[in-house]
Amino acid sequence: MNLAIILAAGKSQRLQGINKIFYQIREKPLIFYTILAFERNPLVHKIILVSRKKDFKRLFSLIKKYKFKKIATITKGGKERQDSAFNGLKAAERLEAKAGDLILFHNGANPLISQKEIKRVIETAKKYKTAVIGAVSKDTVKKVDKNKFVEKTIPRENIYLVQTPQVIEYKLAKMAFEKAFRDKFYGTDDVSLVERLGKKVKVVPGNSQNIKVTLLEDLNFVKFYIKK
Fold first, then answer.
1. Does residue 94 contact residue 161 with C-beta atoms inside 8 Å?
2. How many domains, the chain?
3. What pLDDT is recorded for position 100?
């Protein structure tokens, strides 16, 4: 069983009061497009939504209106994104996830993920137990010191800007998140918790279109691609 955990509990602090997951694009909320990507993919069997409690009612209405069939539960988000992801993982346990199942962690504000990317990252995770979508950096990357002087230039062909979905085999994900919780460690993404266990993470090349909506200009970017 492959379960997608869609994380939609953020506060949209950099969007001037706009609740981005309900931002209207072609008369549908942004989260609709994110859910639809996983609803349509035959390799995804169940979806878990993680959101703020205050948004539950609107999400239940959305599920009913658009007849989404794969959403198994909605669970409350936590203080930080990692807490929300852990709550989603606990919901997967209640849905009887077991060793060998794959958990896909995906940002609710990443609506442009393609079917091809979902398929490739799942197939890769089946082989390696963990996989993440990433776009090759288009820009030159430089490491600087504390005074902002360049120390060295890093070859960009070895630099990937990681995105979501990030896929982890269920038992491994449980181990990684529980250890991080015990250690009070917060990573910048989901697979970094697996890296802490000394495990390797396989990167699946994606594309720069799969952005996370963070700023107002990101909403315009998403609107452009969805209208296309």
1. no
2. 1
3. 96
Residue 215 has pLDDT above 80, yes or no: yes
Residue 53 identity (one-letter amino acid): K
Residue 171: phi and psi, rounded to 5, are: -60, -40
Q: Which two tokens stand for residue 155?
A: 């070859």
Q: Which CATH number is 151's domain given?
A: 3.90.550.10
Give the CA count within 13 Å in the CB-facing half-sphere of 32. 18
Q: Which residues partner with 143 through β-bridges?
A: 152
Residue 42: CB atoms within 10 A of its CB come to: 9
In this structure, what token pair is assigned to residue 115?
């079917």
pTM over 0.85: yes
Query: Strands 150-154 and 141-144, how do they pair?
Result: antiparallel
Crossing angle (nearest 10°) for helices 170-183 and 81-94: 130
Identify the CA nearest to 202 among candidates 175, 172, 162, 171: 162
| Full domain range(s) for residue 41 | 2-227
Structure tokens at 211: 């952005």
Our CA angle for 65, 70, 72, nearest 5°, is 95
